[in-house]
Design goal:
2 copies of one chain form a homodimer. Chain A is of the alpha/beta class. Chain A folds into 2 domains: 134 residues, Alpha-Beta Complex (Aspartate Aminotransferase, domain 1); 230 residues, Aspartate Aminotransferase, domain 2 (3-Layer(aba) Sandwich), CATH 3.40.640.10. Chain A has 13 helices and 14 strands. In chain A, strand 3, helix 5 and strand 4 form a beta-alpha-beta unit. In chain A, helix 4 packs parallel to helix 5 and helix 11 packs parallel to helix 13. Chain A is globular, with a radius of gyration of 20 Å. Chains A and B meet through helix 1, helix 2, helix 4, helix 5 and helix 9 of A and helix 1, helix 2, helix 4, helix 5 and helix 9 of B.
Amino acid sequence: MKRSFIREILEHTTNETISFAGGLPDEKLFPNIQLEQSAKRVLLNANSLQYTTSTGLNELKDKIAQFYCDDGFPTEASNILITSGSQQALDIISRYNNGKCITIESPSYLGAMNVFELNNMKQDAVLLTENGIDINKFEDSFSRSKFSYLIPDFQNPTGYTYSIEKRDSIAKIVGFHDGILIEDSPYGELYFEQKFKSISSLIPNNSFSLGSFSKTLAPSLRIGWIRADEKLLEPLIAYKEAMDLHTNGLSQYILNDYFEDKKQYNIHLKLLRKIYAKKMQIFKSYLDEILPEFNYIKPKGGMFIYGSFPNINSSELVQKCLENNVIFVPGIEFYTEQNNKIENEIRFNFTHCSAKDIYKGLTLISRIIKEM
Amino acid sequence: MKRSFIREILEHTTNETISFAGGLPDEKLFPNIQLEQSAKRVLLNANSLQYTTSTGLNELKDKIAQFYCDDGFPTEASNILITSGSQQALDIISRYNNGKCITIESPSYLGAMNVFELNNMKQDAVLLTENGIDINKFEDSFSRSKFSYLIPDFQNPTGYTYSIEKRDSIAKIVGFHDGILIEDSPYGELYFEQKFKSISSLIPNNSFSLGSFSKTLAPSLRIGWIRADEKLLEPLIAYKEAMDLHTNGLSQYILNDYFEDKKQYNIHLKLLRKIYAKKMQIFKSYLDEILPEFNYIKPKGGMFIYGSFPNINSSELVQKCLENNVIFVPGIEFYTEQNNKIENEIRFNFTHCSAKDIYKGLTLISRIIKEM
């Protein structure tokens, strides 16, 4: 099995590297003071250090269920399985469905594609457009696979967002064929203007809704979850406990304490949305100024700007960039072998770098392109 | 796939239940004050909340490597892969070796047997005796499987410990057949009198040495590791990152800070050894007094007393005990189907309960037996 381009490149970067590669939040926005206060409170009780149950801390499951209820999607703690990041959620679900065929977006999230490969799944990649997956091609594929993985909100890598109409169509198709949708939404809360309705809420018995606090609070806590009907969730528990017994307890206790103050998380999310929207605008202005030939669609949220150069091989470009301490991810990494002819696409992360580094990094890339 | 008896029963216990079931440390011994101080220090730096590298935090890998060096087993950070508990370490290794045959002890650790099953491994269970696995039977099995999983120190479930001679013999056999040994030692530091030499140190190129801070520091942190030759470790990294990207960063930073004060951990381990040795003695005296017909071998460390009643079906007994708020694990849970005729064995954990609860629990069991 091949390692992840992004994870591997992460190990070759230094403090000098300007990285537009990973989906990294801005460290300056981490609520470390508040989480330290929570850590202090929960560590007064030694129970926060003991083994806990396989499906996760009940109080935290209650709170995650409440987030769904607040969005009008009735959910109880028994619908939640807490996982070691939503990466593990993907692994658990696809491990249980080993060898099946799965309909995915083209391009799609690299970590998901790696997990599907690890679990011997045949990936059928369907064209993703600006307002969502191509519906006719999706139905054609899904009628055979009856299993799909989609990222409708500010997709990784493209930043594209599904229209309301496409969400309704997907729900109808999944329901009609009585199949299963894995709806991954790590960026759902990072909208710039409006929050979108989840597809899962339209098909609660035919969906796994995946969530994570990695993009909204802190990746190092590795807390994600699966929301599903109890019947769908139940067989996954034996897998979860064979894989790592249970998710990190201390992080669960800390988050549970952090969410006790409901306002705190909302204020934090508002701040994230505001600053990331601003960073996206900064990235966009510099792009338009420094690399005007880069063709992209402005995202409505999330962490990425995705696009293409007219005549540049982005894999060759990134190698030269790496030598000059600036990196991004070539689009080809996000395609299956089925669609591996894309050579000129690029994913830029706009949340991690400072405005100064964005300017510096894009200027470097522009200079490298001119020398190519 | 079947759920773990222990994990499932954990969900059915209440605060009233006296549990001799799980391998739970005594919460009163958790260094929560010191870990809180470490948490406070590391959370001053927001980087402790960011994504980290797939193989684990370099500083922590250095410190784990140093623990091996201190035991005379030359090890570098590049020999360490940090995992989400040693349960995940087992999953990564067996996932990479999917479908192979593996020689295990009979009885063995339930969580390992579940992971081997999940990874389609054929388990060949070889009789474990008081001073280690039956060497002739081991060699016979290993010459075919060339792959083995052993717990030489204060084994789970039996509490048995391998003699020096058996350790040497195992190393010779593994080396001769150029096979692989997975040596799991979560209890190695919890010795009452002497620390035993690891088998892995005799065959560094043919072994995975598994460790964990779950039994010595705090299970909820879910920090374990694999120590192996770089060539053996390298292909596992892609699996690790597909499974959960990386192990919980905050816990790694906290432990790394905790170990900065070398004395602190040593003092803690000395305290654990002293108190667990005392608890074992208390459990033993009460057992001998209240259930004199229970036949067992006194452990030299670890967390378990294992033995049998002359004529009692321990699976029936545990059901009746559960109704009366006292539990343990019937021995049959630790056997493969190949050896599933053991009906009268029991594993008792002696580290978790107070002396008062040990007395109360064993008295309850004695009364229930008389009523059977």
